[in-house]
Inverse folding.
């Protein structure tokens, strides 16, 4: 219950800075326009690419981008707390640090995601028209979208906790995000990869932060959703376990001096 | 004429001493320095895979092939790297203005804007710089003339990027915190320059020649390096200096309305 409360407080904090948050979405509009221009040029002389029409491709990109652009700042918070030593206050409070960070991160991500989803719907509708089966797929895709956000928060916590050993953990996160960009199918569906690479990339954890939620949205069927959901459960559990182990090892390195 | 040359020499000396200090500060955390540089190279390399797969699937896109897009990436990476390494404060101007931290720079016996821009470095910018150069060497024609032009275009790219940031951050002088707006305009020019210019049509092109001058930063340089035209090159240099002058003018106009925050501070 207390974690739910932390989650709602995090949402309220984000809403307090609404104008800044909305201004941030200008980047989504820019990216949307660039991708729309790029794919319109590519689709000029073809109807489909690997089974995706231009309508499906644009809606796919808006959905994948919604997850990507909703990244929270929990890694930086953890890094700062470890660097300046304020992490010890978190250890003394009546909550488990990792779960606390998940609650905060999810609250932040979900508030950031909503305007991107709304903008994505509006722009994709205006530029390429409606997506068939949108409302049927939406509840299932939203589950995977929230799962994609959760995976992102968990990656950030894992990397943030590495600050106990490394001076600067940002570079690890840059590489991770690029893995999601390329191997996770953020820029285009993994189906466009060469066969051997697609076979591997579809089941790597990065695909569950972009490809599976977005593909569920545009080519919904039960198998696609269940594959995405199963992968999500496996990787989220793995990352949660990993962050707990890292945290427990790191906790032993914390020395408190003075009062 | 003599005083103009003296001013240039002084500015260059200031630039060199800032770079020495910034580099030695960055190297203080040697492991973090090399981790950031190496990670940035890897980070940027990911996009090569994206374009390779895409061009493999679809052939050329609006007259651009893989090599042409890699030119845009190399140019943007080196230009962005120059701006990050040598003019690192260009992304912090709004914060410095509204926090009243400009006072410190106003008291220095140096030109305010260059002094302000050069006084910070972003270590990861070395990664962008190295990546862009490596990418150019591996994917482009490396004749002396092309290398020379690439060097000029990279400097001009940095000039436009820094000018754009100065221009948008200077809005803070007049209308309050413009940090988000400046950050988004900076994101916009970088994002657009990484894609073929021929993709964009209609009224957007006007924006890409004025408010977000991506055309001057990357697409016109690509046309010039593909089919060299001296007149076009001179016009481009002229246009870039007009953009820089506007940014300089807007900043100094804003500086007139700047009010000290009475903040005590010292730069060590």
């Amino acid at each position: 219950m207390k974690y739910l409360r932390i989650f709602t407080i995090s949402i309220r904090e984000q809403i307090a800075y609404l104008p800044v948050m909305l201004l941030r979405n200008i980047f989504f509009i820019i990216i949307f326009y660039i991708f729309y221009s790029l794919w319109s040029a590519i689709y000029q002389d073809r109807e489909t690419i690997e089974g995706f029409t231009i309508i499906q491709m644009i809606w796919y990109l808006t959905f994948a981008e919604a997850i990507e652009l909703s990244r929270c700042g929990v890694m930086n918070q953890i890094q700062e707390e470890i660097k300046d030593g304020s992490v010890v206050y978190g250890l003394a409070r009546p909550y488990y640090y990792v779960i606390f960070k998940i609650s905060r991160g999810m609250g932040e991500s979900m508030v950031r995601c909503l305007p991107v989803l709304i903008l994505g719907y509006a722009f994709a509708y205006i530029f390429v028209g409606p997506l068939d089966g949108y409302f049927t797929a939406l509840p299932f895709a939203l589950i995977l979208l929230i799962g994609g956000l959760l995976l992102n928060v968990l990656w950030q916590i894992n990397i943030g906790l590495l600050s106990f050993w490394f001076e600067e953990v940002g570079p690890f996160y840059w590489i991770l995000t690029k893995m999601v960009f390329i191997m996770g199918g953020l820029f285009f569906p993994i189906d466009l990869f060469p066969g051997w690479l697609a076979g591997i990339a579809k089941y790597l954890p990065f695909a569950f932060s972009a490809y599976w939620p977005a593909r569920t949205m545009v080519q919904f069927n039960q198998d696609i959703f269940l594959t995405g959901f199963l992968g999500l459960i496996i990787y989220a559990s793995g990352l949660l376990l990993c962050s707990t182990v890292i945290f427990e090892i790191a906790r032993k390195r914390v020395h408190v001096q003075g009062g | 004429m003599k005083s103009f040359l003296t001013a240039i020499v002084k500015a260059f000396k200031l630039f060199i001493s800032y770079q020495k200090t910034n580099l030695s500060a960055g190297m203080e955390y040697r492991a973090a320095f090399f981790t950031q540089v190496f990670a940035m190279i890897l980070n940027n390399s990911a996009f090569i895979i994206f374009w390779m797969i895409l061009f493999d699937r679809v052939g050329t896109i609006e007259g651009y092939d893989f090599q042409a897009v890699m030119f845009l990436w190399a140019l943007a990476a080196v230009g962005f790297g120059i701006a990050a390494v040598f003019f690192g404060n260009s992304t912090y101007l709004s914060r410095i203005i509204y926090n009243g931290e400009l006072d410190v720079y106003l008291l220095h016996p140096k030109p305010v804007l260059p002094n302000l821009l050069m006084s910070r470095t972003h270590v990861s910018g070395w990664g962008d710089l190295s990546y862009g150069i490596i990418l150019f060497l591996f994917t482009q024609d490396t004749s002396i003339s092309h290398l020379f032009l690439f060097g000029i275009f990279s400097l001009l790219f940095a000039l436009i990027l820094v000018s754009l940031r100065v221009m948008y951050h200077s809005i803070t002088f007049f209308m309050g915190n413009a940090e988000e707006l400046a950050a988004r305009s900076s994101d916009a020019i970088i994002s657009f320059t990484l894609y073929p210019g021929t993709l964009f049509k209609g009224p957007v092109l006007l924006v890409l020649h004025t408010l977000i001058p991506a055309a001057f930063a990357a697409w016109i340089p690509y046309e010039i390096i593909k089919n060299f035209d001296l007149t076009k090159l001179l016009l481009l240099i002229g246009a870039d200096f007009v953009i820089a002058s506007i940014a300089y003018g807007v900043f100094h106009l804003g500086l007139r309305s700047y009010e000290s925050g009475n903040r005590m501070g010292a730069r060590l």
